[in-house]
Write a structure and sequence with these properties.
7 strands, seven-stranded antiparallel sheet, Jelly Rolls, single chain, alpha+beta
């Protein structure tokens, strides 16, 4: 499978709506465009790796100093740690996390997307290519 990041990001129209672009073992590689403030949440059983492709992102924590990330930076949010990502202007991020990780943790908001919704476009690509 070959993916081009520019083309994949061009397919993303909604902020804070991750798009699965690949699966590696039991991990998903997700892309998302971020802008504004997200929601305080945690992932009880999963670490979450943020890699900044374009722009900058602040990850706020309740129990430690904020982390400011710029293009080329990466940061792992440990499992069970409450955090809130904030992007003052559009930020492109690549996420690495277990395939079934809920991107808003147990918090349900208007923009919450299920794992199936995050990968729905992959199924239509498989159908177009004959399932190969």
């Amino acid at each position: 499978m070959i993916s081009n990041l520019e083309k994949e990001f061009a397919e993303i129209s909604d902020y804070w709506s991750p798009r699965v672009v690949a699966d590696v073992n039991d991990q998903s590689v997700k892309l998302a465009k971020l802008k504004g403030e997200f929601v305080w949440h945690d992932h009880e059983n999963e670490d979450e790796l943020f890699f900044i492709v374009k722009g900058s992102l602040t990850i706020r924590y309740r129990d430690r100093e904020d982390v400011v990330l710029n293009a080329g930076d990466m940061h792992v949010v440990p499992k069970g740690i409450e955090h809130n990502p904030i992007a003052r202007s559009e930020c492109w991020v690549m996420l690495f996390e277990p395939a079934e990780t809920k991107h808003t943790g147990e918090v349900i908001v208007e923009g919450t997307r299920s794992a199936a919704q995050q990968r729905a476009h992959l199924q239509s690509q498989d159908q177009q290519s004959g399932g190969a």
